[in-house]
Amino acid sequence: MSDLVLETKNLVKHFPLTRGVVFKKQYGAVRAVDGVNLELRRGETLGIVGESGCGKSTLARMLVGLETPTSGDLFVQGKNMSKVGGEERRRGRRNIQLVMQDPYTSLNPRMTVGDIIGEPFQVHPDVVPKSQRRGKVQELLELVGLNPEHINRYPHQFSGGQRQRIGIARALALNPEIILCDEPVSALDVSIQAQVINLLEKLQNELGLSYIFIAHDLSVVRHIADRVAVMYLGKIVEVGTEDEIYESPTHPYTQALLSAVPVPDPTLRGQRDQIVLTGDVPSPADPPSGCRFRTRCWKAQDICAEQEPLLQIRDKSGHPSACHFAEVRDVVHATE
Amino acid sequence: MSSDVNVKLDALPGADPNALPLQVKDLHVEFRTRNGIAHAVNGVSFDLRAGETRAILGESGCGKSVTAQAIMGILDSPPGFVTGGEILYRGVDLLKLPESERRKVRANRIAMIFQDALSALNPVFTVGFQLAELFRKHRGMSRQDAKARAVELLDLVKIPAAKQRVNDYPHQFSGGMRQRVMIAMALALDPEVLIADEPTTALDVTVQAQIMALLAELQRERNMGLVLITHDMGVVADVADRISVMYAGRVIEEAGVNDIYASPAHPYTKGLLESIPRLDLKGQELSAIKGLPPALTNIPPGCAFNPRCRYAQEVCRKDPAPPLYQVSPSRTAACHFWKEVKGDE
């Protein structure tokens, strides 16, 4: 089990909804993440996909320690991060770093690139001795494909793709084992997107990193991920290897999501069996009873409202799916 | 739909009911900024037939949205100026019309939907008021009639419980529903041409599928021309008839949708298609286009794409920029080496 670098057990985050100013009363909660179990192995890329509002970013923030879980456990290299405190916790956090979505707002415009990438060393001074920090920052710049001489420049002097590289360099500064990428390429143009994805794969090979890759672009996730978890309204509805999820999805939501992705091949137009879901994602403050997807599901029956389907292996496909009626359905894929 | 507005349009100089609903000819737009003149659009031309979907494909900063703004006449001016070219609606050059006449064309004959519906709608008026306003101003309807039409429109774009929702404010709608309201607003006056500027970029894929299906249905019903501005090559493959690929303010390739995807004739188009992650390339490096798009204040001489191009030779680095070569009777590409690009598949 030493292979497991990160594990979550029943991780939950509820944001309370309160009424009143002086006599605050909680009348409900937004169930952003509602019981998530994940495993990440060394050198692996785990993709997390889902629509906006499904809780994937809240999950990411909990994993890096920016949010405290309401309940549940987070293990980083076997250590329960919610139990340990102080120095040990800081050390654990060092091992998991975040690359953020928007390269325009996640870099302080008044700091130079050198200061931005070197800032983690102020929090964790023992990683690199003070005298070598500048050199280390230049090394990092070179590693992510930027000119080390640009260390004194400011973020506005770089393009979007270059800024994302700065964000990646900052995440690498503390030699982490796990990098969490929260929509790292969705703000970038297609041609630049490919450059950043290539960089991430190169770094993984060179440094033996494990990635958690959160994105809504399913073809990007397919390209980079080894395993994929599909989230809907705070829960994982299906998880499996990249092949299992994309080739033989068994959860209706995964099937609908995959079929909705436009295929960049005009000859397939009209041949695809597209499932157009009706309606919007329900509010996570008041999720439907039983299966959370049942309000938009074409397979829904009475049992779906009464009994919540567990994430478990049900049929021959051999990967867990949270649907009472999980079965494989043929779909034409986004990336064929 | 009453047509007193149309009657007036027919009286405009050059009006020809048999001409194409939209023709853009050699359009030039520049932005005069403190850092010099940014040449955002440098000679863009395209035609749009009734019922046709024309995709304008390109990355940020290639001038695709500016082209749309110039067609609609909503360019921020200053700093933006249309410095040349023609925009013809049924033979009438919109650029030569006085603003008062142009207003009648806008929304009425050519309408537009925007990427971010929340900022395109006015937050302090109800959706119903904003829809009804169109009928009151353009059609002179009474408040009551206009409101009734607004409900009809919301029904048309499949907003559930339209009668109640018409009194809601934009923030009370979800992203997809807001985009539907925008579509309703654009279609209110039965335009012949709809310009959609990244209509689904801000939406999730499942909602995107809903919106694109709705747009396609409405377009078919009304035989409306659609100019779809996007960078999403999946969406384009799904809905477009013809494609204009833009780079640094120029159309660098123009062709039918099948031609472009099967055998791109410009290295940029080819690079774009190759940088989409695909199943058979899993585990391999994506072939990214190296480098960055040029700053519009400083477009390189010759072909604007030459610093990033693997086919580039001496001739590409010299002015003039490559003209649009006729690749086949129905397609053009602005590359000296289009034969090579198209051939080495």
UniProtKB/TrEMBL annotation, chain A:
One of its GO terms (biological process) is peptide transport. Keywords: ATP-binding, Nucleotide-binding, Transport. The keyword Nucleotide-binding applies. This is Peptide ABC transporter ATP-binding protein. PANTHER family: D,D-DIPEPTIDE TRANSPORT ATP-BINDING PROTEIN DDPF-RELATED, TRANSPORT ATP-BINDING PROTEIN. The keyword tRNA processing does not apply. One of its GO terms (molecular function) is ATP binding. Belongs to the ABC transporter superfamily. PROSITE patterns: ABC_TRANSPORTER_1, ABC_TRANSPORTER_2.
Automatic annotation (TrEMBL), chain B:
It is found in: Cell membrane. Belongs to the ABC transporter superfamily. Its main location: membrane. It comes from the Bacteria. The keyword Mitochondrion does not apply. It comes from Micromonospora endophytica. GO terms for cellular component: plasma membrane. One of its GO terms (molecular function) is ATP binding. Pfam families: ABC_tran, oligo_HPY. It is a peripheral membrane protein. Residues 22-273 form the ABC transporter domain. This is Methionine ABC transporter ATP-binding protein. The keyword Transmembrane helix does not apply. InterPro entries: AAA+_ATPase (IPR003593), ABC_Ni/Peptide_Import (IPR050388), ABC_transporter-like_ATP-bd (IPR003439), ABC_transporter-like_CS (IPR017871), Oligopep_ABC_C (IPR013563), P-loop_NTPase (IPR027417).
